Amino acid sequence: MHGAQLTALRSSKSPTGGTGIETFDYIIVGSGTAGATLAARLSEDEACRVLVLEAGGTDRRFWLRLPVGYFKSIYNEKVSHLFKGDPDAGIAGRAMDVPRGRVLGGSSSINGLIYIRGQREDFDDWERLGATGWRYADVLPHFRNIESYDG
After folding, report:
1. So where are the chain's domains?
2. Which terminus of the chain faces fewer neighbouring Cβ atoms within 10 Å, N or C?
3. Separation CA 105–CA 18 (nearest Å)
4. pLDDT per residue over 94-107, tens digit each?
């Protein structure tokens, strides 16, 4: 909501003893890759107040830190929403599991530590369809920045 102030009611007790109402410039729902990145960028402006809401908890669980932890994480209701797709005739009427992250880091935290860039052609197609600035050559420096992070 650009240009409007957003208000949140704090559900926990404030230091003054009551519940408090706080005002934020932006409220971001979900702390997945996009939500966390957006919050970080917005909060670079010290005058900007950003609230991130996340349904899940910490991403510091043991199984989230191991590549094989994927199998323990995607069906764990503490870190996955455990969504189910609709029955699909293309797969004999079955409904596929659609695990989505319910944890800091979102689905990126339950994907077995897998990282892959999108295909060059997809990005270039997006720009041809009107998404200016999304061609592969434009986003490649951002991918390289992530890939060279030592953390």
Report:
1. 1-53, 62-109, 116-151
2. C
3. 31
4. 999 999 999 999 99
